[in-house]
Amino acid sequence: MVYLGWGIDDEGIAWMNEVLSQHPDRTAILTFHEYLQATGTRHPLGEKLYQEVVLPNENVVAVLSGHYHEAQTLVDEIDDDGDGNPDRTVYQMLSDYQAGPEGGQGYMRLLHFDTENNRIFVNTYSPYMDDYNYYDTDEYPNKDEFMIDLDLTAQEKRVATDNFAVNVYTNNEIGTVEDVASGDTAEATWTDLTEGEQYSWYATVSDDYTGESRSPIWSFVKGEDDTPDEEIGNGDGNQEEEQPGNDPDPRPDPSPSPDPDPQPNPNPDPDPRPDQGEGNDESEDGQGSENKNDQTTEEAEQNNNQQDESDADQINASNNNKINLPDTATNMYQYLALSLVLLLSGTILYVRTRRQKIK
């Protein structure tokens, strides 16, 4: 049975066609509020339903309706494959007794399915009157009581599959969230889980109008708990706090790198000590390496000696610049001064000699 209520629209028709197409192997009886008129012909809405639902779906065998006070039956034979021969018979029935005494006295249409004889026996009964058939069967035969021949043989089906699963939905509640607005996300926390164990859960959504929807069952394996950042290195871990002065891997400080571009001192020492050069000579001979006794391997000692020699070379170069500055500029100034003196002397001598000759 597939039913559409009052106020049928295109969306409802599309839904009914979708349901019928999803179950082509099932015999379908359609029920509408309004389909046949009191004259026994289809209402314009009924004609629309006949063209758009009854004809396209070969599994439809009957249509039930009401709205109009009457009892009518319309039978149509339909050629589904277009070969000119009818392939199915559709029984369209109207049964409505609301205009009778006491609002119809509760008469209603009954369908009795006789699967052994492949037929449906139709009649009308009122529990209020405890009486069968609103219309007298002798005066109005086949109006309230008649027979429909229909193949009711059970179809044999075989289901083949390579997988079979059973979902068990329990009532062990994890949490409940109420008054969740449409489009919002509901959250619940599942506590006291064991690490490494598999758990399954599902969700049920319901509204105030008896609507309810249930999700599939999802599974997960409980992992490790998250560790807050402030607990890393403390607490139960094996890491120990590093104490000052307790370096687990002590290493000697590397020798300072020499200045790759030493600059001369603009204020050289006017009285350089003669023993300074001797100290440098000692550094060049490698004697200054006695301060590197912290090294424990021969390779480290060789590296330090080479570094000391490089440092000594840089220091000597710097000291040489401090003591022996070039005299080129001073000599030039002296030569210029001497030339000026000679030039002035020659000029004076020339002027005197010139005057004496004139006298």
Automatic annotation (TrEMBL):
It is a peptidoglycan-anchor. Keywords: Cell wall, Membrane, Peptidoglycan-anchor, Secreted, Signal, Transmembrane, Transmembrane helix. Signal peptide: none annotated. SUPFAM superfamilies: Metallo-dependent phosphatases. It comes from the Bacteria. The keyword Transport does not apply. It is found in: Secreted, Cell wall. Residues 226-244, 278-287 have a biased composition (Acidic residues). It comes from Gracilibacillus orientalis. Residues 325-359 form the Gram-positive cocci surface proteins LPxTG domain. Residues 218-322 are annotated as: Disordered. The chain crosses the membrane at residues 332-351. It holds the Pfam family Gram_pos_anchor. Residues 253-269 have a biased composition (Pro residues). This is Gram-positive cocci surface proteins LPxTG domain-containing protein. InterPro entries: LPXTG_anchor, Metallo-depent_PP-like, STPP_CPPED1.
